[in-house]
Amino acid sequence: MKKYICLLVFTVMLVTSCKKFGDINTDPTKSSNLDPAIQLGYVQQKFSGDLNVQERLGVILTMPLVGHIGGAWVNQYGQFYVKQERYASLLWEDNYVNEIKNILDAEERSRNNNTAKNLNGMCRVMKVYLFARLTDLYGDIPYAEASAAYSKGKSSPRYDKQEDIYNDFFKQLDTAVIKFSEGQDLVSNDAFYQGKVAKWRKFTASLRLRLALRLAKRNPAKAKEEVQKAYNAGVMDTQDDNCLLRHDNVQNDYSDLRGNGLSAALNQGDLIGYRMTSTFITHLQNTNDPRLYVMARNYLDKPFKPFERVDITEQVKAQVGSFGVRPADFIWDNWQNTIYINTPDAQGVPVSNNEQFIQVSNFLIASNAPFLHLGYAETELLLADASVRFNIQLGVTAEEHYKNGLTAACRQLSIYPNAPAISDDAITQFIADNALQPGKELQQINTQLWIVYFMNGPEAYANVRRSGFPVLPSGFKSGYSDAPQMPRRMEYPISEKSLNATNAGEAITRMGGKDDWSNRVWWDMP
Fold first, then answer.
1. 3-class DSSP state for residue 420?
2. Percentage of the chain lying above the pLDDT 90 cut
């Protein structure tokens, strides 16, 4: 409760903040003595607790873009590649005046404070993490002058090249590691690791690994150097190192941050829409993946009461099998005739078209579901990718990292309350059925990352673009789609192209002269 009160007070302080760079430093509610630790905690909580961003960026855009979910009317913007400026702009317009504003201020306040070295290191890592999400989605963005927009009233910050931004990311992570020290300040407001510096070191190294592999095609030498540096520093080596935020069992609205915002986006409303896709379900079926019926279930819909739904998976599977929404379909396309089942409470219960399409399991969309930022399973699969790609050995072979990654990915689901356990025998069989095949290693590894990133659409979208895997079917739908293939980035907000036209224009020129979602960000190469 104390944590929530602090967050609530701080959120109220931000309500009147203006929406343009030039007005950021005129916020009359800004405290000159605000504790940077509270700002760090607020930023961490808002990242996954913000329903507004999680709904639009995750559920409406990126999860459908990568073929995780689809079928609902609003999924069309990601699933069928339909341009919607207000959704694509939301992260930019929300982050710069909230998370970015606060983490830059917190990092500056703690920079020269010898009693806040760990706090400053955490703020630096969080700054990199936040800006990485932005630049990976948009490309060139205001970075070096973003703090000047806040502290000096610079109304038109320049756009940095993504290459320069990434180079500074690695420098910021270097500085953070130097700052971290056991026995220094304990950051009790840290919502990720409760101030445990050893865990932050592993998160920092694993984040470096993730970002290093973004450069694998654009600058292989730099990518290999940073991968080796990350491994030498000590990446995550157990599930206990996972970076996650454990949310409260509170159903978020658009101002409350306590519950999981992504879960709220998926479980609110009448449940007529969001379903898992045939692309995702078929892959799990074809690979004998034991996560299939843990992550995916059929339910008798109960509007506005998702956790009172009756699980009918086995009955539906026995009659019609398990299937998801096809890439270019709404849930009402490919219509299924009503079937009838028996439940413990009734005989001959009708199961409609909508209920026959498999859904995300309840435990994944609960309000108290943790949000996994970066975990051991991802780290092992990234090490496997790097080992194959650069022909290097990072402790063990690529095959061992891959096996570790598959095992961790199955066991990772145990972080969710009420998640069914997957047996060791099932995991062993899964690994045996999906051994690395010569020439197909990167495809297999990154397809497994695609599964690991379920419930983290922006990261899945980034990894599909940087690796090229899995090769996803087009969601093009005649009469809806604005593009034949998956867009490669988000276009800049109209407000930026109007109010910061010179700097936005220079960035657009670097991308070929047109702000188009088919343009690739710097690191995204064919």
1. coil
2. 86
